[in-house]
C-alpha cells in the first residue's frame, strides 16, 4: 500500500508544442489527499492538457508528477500499475470513452477482472455494486451504452472508474454536455462518492459556477498559466485577478454581484502564440505599460491566496 502522507504534485515545465495540444507553461499544482480542487478557465487555456498530464495519460515534456511523494515515471511494476489505476479520468462525452460493442457489465467489470480486483465468480456482484454506487440500475447491465441517455452513460463511466478502486479522480468537463437538472444530479453523486469513498478530485470546468459548490480550492488558468489560486470561498468573496473577476461576473447568482465587468471581453488569443508579458493584457480593463512587457509572478496576496497581477505591486 502506498503511503498517504504525500501529495500529488504536478510540476510541469516547458510548453507542449503541438497543433492539437495546448501549451501548459510552468504550472505547479498540488492536490492533497481528500481535497477537491476546481481547475477553471476558458477552452484552450490548457486545463484539459494539464488534467491529462496529471492523470498520466499524456506525458509532460518537462517537469515531474509525483504520487504520494514518489515520481510517477519512476514507479515500476505493481506500484506503477497501481498508481495508474488509482487515478481515473472522467470525460465530457462518455459515449466516446465507452466501448460501444461491450455490454455495460463488461465495460464496468473488464479492468477489475484483469487487475485481479474481482474474480469470475464474484464478477456479477462486483459489477452490480459499482453500478449501484453510481446510481445505475444493475438489472440493465446486459444492455449496450447506446441504449442509454447522456446522464445514464455518464453513470456507466463513473461506475467503470469506481470499479478499479481509485483514490483520485480527474473530471474533465464531466457534466458540461448534460442538461442542467442532470448536471446537478451528477455533481451531487460526485460529492456523495467523495464522502463514501474518501475520494480526491481535480474538477476541470470552464464554468466557475459549476465548480463553486464542490471545490475546496479553486485554481484559475489562462493561456497555459495559473493566474490565481485560493480557497473556494476566498475566490468567490475576494477574487484578486482581473481575469477571475471577469469570469465571476459571468456566473449568474441570486445575490446579484456588482457588475463591474461585463464578462470577459474579446476572443481568447492563440495559446501557441500568446501575448507578451501578462497573457491577459489585450483583454484586461486595468492593463498598463508594464503588463505588455513583464510576466507577472504568482504572489501571495493573502494566506493561501496567490495571484499573478502587476496591480498587486502598485497597491503595495
Ligand atoms: Fe491586467 Fe496587468 Fe494584471 Fe495582467 S498584470 S491582469 S494586464 S493589470
Ligand atoms: Mg477541454
Automatic annotation (TrEMBL):
It is found in: Cell inner membrane. Coiled coil: none annotated. The keyword Chloroplast does not apply. InterPro entries: AAA+_ATPase, ABC_transp_ATP-bind, ABC_transporter-like_ATP-bd, ABC_transporter-like_CS, Oligopep_ABC_C, P-loop_NTPase. Belongs to the ABC transporter superfamily. It holds the Pfam family ABC_tran. The keyword Translocase does not apply. It is a peripheral membrane protein. Residues 1-248 form the ABC transporter domain. Keywords: ATP-binding, Nucleotide-binding, Transport. SUPFAM superfamilies: P-loop containing nucleoside triphosphate hydrolases. PANTHER family: D,D-DIPEPTIDE TRANSPORT ATP-BINDING PROTEIN DDPF-RELATED (PTHR43776:SF7), TRANSPORT ATP-BINDING PROTEIN (PTHR43776). This is ABC transporter ATP-binding protein. GO terms for molecular function: ATP binding.
Amino acid at each position: 500500500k502506498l503511503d498517504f502522507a504525500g501529495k500529488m504534485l504536478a510540476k510541469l515545465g516547458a510548453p507542449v508544442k503541438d497543433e492539437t495540444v495546448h501549451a501548459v507553461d510552468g504550472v505547479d499544482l498540488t492536490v492533497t489527499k481528500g481535497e477537491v480542487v476546481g481547475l477553471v478557465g476558458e477552452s484552450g487555456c490548457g486545463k484539459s492538457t494539464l488534467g491529462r498530464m496529471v492523470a498520466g495519460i499524456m506525458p509532460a515534456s518537462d517537469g515531474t508528477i509525483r504520487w504520494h511523494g514518489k515520481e510517477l515515471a519512476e514507479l515500476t511494476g505493481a506500484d506503477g500499475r497501481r498508481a495508474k489505476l488509482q487515478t481515473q479520468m472522467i470525460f465530457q462525452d462518455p459515449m466516446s470513452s465507452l466501448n460501444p460493442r461491450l455490454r455495460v457489465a463488461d465495460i464496468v467489470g473488464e479492468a477489475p477482472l484483469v487487475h485481479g480486483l474481482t474474480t469470475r465468480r464474484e464478477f456479477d456482484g462486483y459489477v452490480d455494486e459499482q453500478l449501484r454506487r453510481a446510481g445505475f440500475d444493475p438489472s440493465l447491465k446486459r444492455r449496450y451504452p447506446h441504449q442509454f441517455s447522456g446522464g445514464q452513460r455518464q453513470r456507466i463511466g463513473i461506475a467503470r472508474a469506481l470499479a478499479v478502486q481509485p483514490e483520485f479522480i480527474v473530471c474533465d468537463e464531466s457534466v458540461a454536455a448534460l442538461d442542467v437538472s442532470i448536471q446537478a444530479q451528477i455533481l451531487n453523486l460526485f460529492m456523495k462518492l467523495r464522502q463514501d469513498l474518501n475520494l480526491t478530485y481535480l474538477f476541470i470546468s470552464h464554468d466557475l459556477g459549476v465548480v463553486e459548490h464542490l471545490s475546496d480550492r479553486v485554481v484559475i488558468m489562462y493561456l497555459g498559466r495559473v493566474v490565481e489560486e485560493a480557497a473556494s470561498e476566498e475566490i468567490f468573496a475576494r477574487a484578486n485577478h482581473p481575469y477571475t473577476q471577469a469570469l465571476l461576473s459571468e456566473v449568474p447568482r441570486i445575490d446579484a454581484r456588482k457588475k463591474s465587468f461585463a464578462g470577459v471581453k474579446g476572443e481568447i488569443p492563440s495559446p501557441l502564440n500568446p501575448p507578451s508579458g501578462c497573457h491577459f493584457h489585450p483583454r484586461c480593463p486595468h492593463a498598463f505599460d508594464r503588463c505588455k512587457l513583464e510576466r507577472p509572478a504568482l504572489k501571495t496576496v493573502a494566506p493561501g491566496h496567490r495571484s499573478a497581477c502587476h496591480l498587486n505591486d502598485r497597491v503595495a
